[in-house]
Amino acid sequence: MKLLLGNYDWNAYDELIDNLSFNWYIDNYWTVKGQFSVTKQYSKAEKFIDPLSSKTSVYGTDDKNLSGDLYTTKGESINWNANAFLYYTRTFKEKHNLNVSLGWEASSGTTENTNAHYRGFPSGRIPFIKLCGRDL
């Protein structure tokens, strides 16, 4: 007889990236260039180890209340970057070039992660998880 364990391991990751840039040619000498970018990331993972598995974190213990593990991870981050530059370009008497530029740049980012480890499950069937409409 083959023993079916309720072990599973899954993860998901989404990323959204948006970039915007512009060039404004004010006249023959002045130019403004700028860029803005933002990146948003989401991640989620879950790993369950059946109490009857030999891979539990407390394998070999006589305390059945500690068997079985559930690891969860959830993360989110957002990062942005912006810059702008002003350029002045001029040629005098077809021999002399004058180039002047002024620039600005800013960036920021935040990250938030939550990790948890739950230990001690009565069986490999977890009632709050559904697979194809059925309990595991």
Briefly say what this structure is:
The strands form two sheets. The chain has a four-stranded antiparallel sheet, with no helix packed on it. A two-stranded antiparallel ribbon has the order 5-6. The protein is rod-shaped, with a radius of gyration of 29 Å.
Unreliable stretches: 130-136
Largest sheet properties = 4 strands, antiparallel
Helix content range: under 10%
- Any idea what the shape is? rod-shaped
Please give the number of β-strands: 6
Sheet with the most strands: spatial strand order: 1-2-3-4
Can you characterise this structure?
The chain is an all-beta fold. The chain has no helices and six strands. It has strands at about 10-25, 30-50, 70-90, 95-120, 130, 135. The strands form two sheets. A four-stranded antiparallel beta sheet has the order 1-2-3-4, with no helix packed on it. The protein has a two-stranded antiparallel ribbon with strand order 5-6. β5 and β6 form a beta hairpin. It is rod-shaped. It starts with 7 loop residues before the first strand and ends with a strand.
Describe this protein with a few key phrases:
four-stranded antiparallel β-sheet, 136 residues, mainly beta, rod-shaped
Q: How are the SSEs ordered, and which strands pair?
A:
Blueprint: E1 8-25, E2 30-49, E3 69-92, E4 96-119, E5 130-131, E6 134-135
Antiparallel strand pairs: 1-2, 2-3, 3-4, 5-6
